[in-house]
Amino acid sequence: METTGDGTGRTGAGPQPLAPDTSRLDGRSARAWTEPMTVRATGEGRYDVENGAGRTYRVDLPDGDCTCPDHRIRGERCKHLRRVAIEVTRGRIPAPGQVRGTCRGCGREGFVPEGGPDYCRGCRLESGDLATDRETGDAVLVVRVTADRADAVAVDGTGRPVADYETNAGYPRDDPVVEVVYPFDGGEPLADRRRYSFPHSRLAPRDAAIVDPGLGEV
Ligand SMILES: [Zn+2]
Ligand SMILES: [Zn+2]
């Protein structure tokens, strides 16, 4: 893309239209932007695209497939495929692997992983993330995010579910359990440290993530 002007990335021409200058696009791209279509995500990377005439085609975005004649017969990257890609890029519909949902962490409506847990990108914890224990302020390192509920997992050697601990009373009992270690105290290798189980919502993600190769596959 051509860069001009003051270096801020803006052209200085004031507000810009939503669609690109379609006169500079090829026909299929222009139609993808301008024709009335209704796109609905149906899961697993598939989308129903209804055109202005009420006809519905099915797009498989990861496979780059569409059921319309333009794609099936002529083998073109049709306007339906392009429209789905545009709407995903603009955040209007979920990307493959995501669904619309309410984030359990921040309560905002948005996109969450298709197979759960229901956390937005900003609230979701993954192995290798640093997080803050909201109860104590301690830094912890996420070793594993499990699919198990806090009221169904017993803390090692106690028989007592994670959710039953007093300090976890303020967090949903059906939260997924997250296993962590304390990375900043003691000299043991991280992989040898004792793991602790927390309800996901008790841990606030931090910006910085550290990845320790010593943890390996967990
Ligand atoms: Zn098509
Ligand atoms: Zn969130």
Automatic annotation (TrEMBL):
Pfam families with a match to the protein in the record: SWIM (PF04434)
Example of a GO MF term: zinc ion binding
SWIM-type domain ranges (all copies): 57-89
Region (Disordered): 1-31
Feature: compositional bias, Gly residues: 1-12
Domain of life: Archaea
Keyword Lyase carried by entry: no
Coiled-coil features, chain-numbered ranges: none
Keywords: Metal-binding, Zinc, Zinc-finger
Protein name per Swiss-Prot or TrEMBL: SWIM zinc finger family protein
